[in-house]
Structure formats: structure tokens, C-alpha cells
Write a structure and sequence with these properties.
Strand content: 15-25%
Number of domains: 1
CATH superfamily: Gcn5-related N-acetyltransferase (GNAT)
Bound molecules: coenzyme A
Radius of gyration: 20 Å
Strand order of the largest sheet: 1-2-3-4-5-7-6
Order of helices and strands: EHHEEEHEHEHHE
CATH topology: Aminopeptidase
Pfam family, one: Acetyltransf_1
Organism: Ignelater luminosus
GO molecular function: acetyl-CoA binding; N-acetyltransferase activity
Protein name: N-acetyltransferase domain-containing protein
CATH class: Alpha Beta
InterPro entries: Acyl_CoA_acyltransferase, GNAT_dom, NAA80
Structural class: alpha+beta
Largest sheet: 7 strands, mixed
Length: about 190
């Protein structure tokens, strides 16, 4: 069987097939998806595709973590619906890890998942603290923490200084739910 994992930007002729594969799992406009795929490059972000007999059957994206220079965040891992459960996902992940280690000289891979923990743990990923893939701090800033503390502080400020109570913070409960329901995992390469 002819199986290959290659960077998408070296094989741009597969971009539309790749776009369709990802969009079958996570619906998004073709324009937005193609724009995101066009960002793939030799440094991060890099989109890797799994080709079987010259057809795109898998994809994953390696993204930069600004606060951790020798690591990346793997996301949008997907295998063609009709070919799942046959070892292709494991093959793609193993090749992606080799790429991270040998081509990008990275030491750690992070990811977050909702429901695929077993798939990743079989590949050697362990649960870890949530990390932020935005900004300079690697620690995720939990919004609930702020909601709780600002409510307390509001009363104190009003009482001690007799100053007007500031307007309420924007509602952040939804964001918090989303962050906490994801499981973060990592693997040392
Ligand atoms: C997750 C996904 C990439 C796995 O790919 P796959 O080709 O089906 O996985 P494999 O066949 O290589 O499975 C490897 C092992 O993980 C197990 N596994 C795969 N998906 C699993 C799941 N959702 N839950 C539990 N175990 C799972 C398999 O049973 C297999 O176990 P085994 O080695 O003991 O037989 C694929 O199911 C997929 O594209 N899912 C939809 C998109 C998605 O959720 N991506 C992950 C985003 S975090």
C-alpha cells in the first residue's frame, strides 16, 4: 500500500481535497479553510497530510506555542470517515511526531481533546495542565477565577473607598466551560 505523510505546502495540488476532508468533520467556509491551509510552511504552522494511493485520507496541523519554543500544538487531527479504525490515525500521528522531532527539532507535543483521550493515550500521550496557545504565558487563564474574585473585590472597593461600583465584567462562564471540558495531553519526543 502506498502511504505517505507529507507537508501540504510541498504538495499544494492536494489543498482542495484536504479542505474537503477537514470540512466533513468541522464545517467551515471553503474560503476560510483554504486560507488557513495556505499558511502551512516549513516553520510552524505546518499542515501534514496522509496520502493513500495519491488520495488525501488524513490531516493534522502543527501550531506554534508562543510561550514554549521547543514544542508545538497538534490540532485538527482527522482521518477520512470511511477509513477509521484501521490504524491510519496512529500512522499519521507517529509520522507527525517524527516530523516534529527530525525536521522541526521539537521536544514536546501538546494537544487538547474532547473524547479522544484513549486514542492519544494509546500513542503515549499523558494528561497535563491546560496550556495557552496564545500570548506569552503558557498557563491558561481561567475566567471563573476572575469572576469569583472580582465579585468579592467589588464589595470591598465599594465599602472601603466609598467609590462607585465598577460595571460588571463580561460574562465568561461559557468560555470557562469550554476550557475545562477539554483534556490537555502531552508527549515528550
Ligand atoms: C481520532 C481519529 C483521528 C483516530 O483515527 P483512526 O484511524 O480511527 O485511529 P486508529 O485506527 O489508528 O486507532 C488506534 C487505536 O485507538 C483506538 N481509538 C481510535 N479512536 C478512538 C476513540 N474515539 N475512542 C477510543 N479509542 C479509539 C482504536 O481502537 C485503536 O486501538 P487499538 O490499537 O487497541 O486497536 C479518527 O477517529 C477521527 O478522525 N476522528 C474524528 C476527528 C477527531 O475527533 N479528531 C481528534 C480531535 S482531538
Amino acid at each position: 500500500m502506498d502511504l505517505q505523510v507529507v507537508p501540504l505546502h510541498k504538495y499544494p495540488q492536494y489543498s482542495m481535497q484536504c479542505c474537503q476532508l477537514i470540512n466533513e468533520e468541522w464545517k467551515r467556509s471553503v474560503t476560510a479553510r483554504m486560507r488557513s491551509l495556505e499558511c502551512s510552511c516549513d516553520v510552524l504552522p505546518t499542515c501534514l497530510i496522509l496520502l493513500k494511493d495519491k488520495k488525501v485520507i488524513g490531516h493534522c496541523k502543527l501550531s506554534l506555542i508562543p510561550s514554549i519554543c521547543d514544542a508545538c500544538f497538534i490540532e485538527s487531527v482527522v482521518i477520512d470517515k470511511s477509513l477509521r479504525g484501521k490504524g491510519y490515525g496512529s500512522y499519521l500521528m507517529t509520522k507527525a511526531e517524527e516530523y516534529c522531532k527530525n525536521a522541526l527539532n521539537l521536544k514536546t507535543i501538546y494537544l487538547s481533546t474532547k473524547g479522544q483521550e484513549l486514542f492519544y493515550s494509546k500513542l503515549g500521550y499523558d494528561k497535563c495542565q491546560p496550556i495557552s496557545i496564545y500570548g506569552s504565558s503558557s498557563i491558561v487563564n481561567f475566567p471563573m477565577y476572575h469572576v469569583h474574585h472580582t465579585t468579592k473585590n467589588k464589595k470591598q472597593i465599594g465599602n472601603e473607598n466609598n467609590s462607585p461600583i465598577p460595571p460588571p465584567m463580561p460574562k465568561t462562564t461559557l468560555v470557562c466551560t469550554e476550557i475545562t471540558s477539554k483534556v490537555y495531553m502531552k508527549k515528550e519526543l
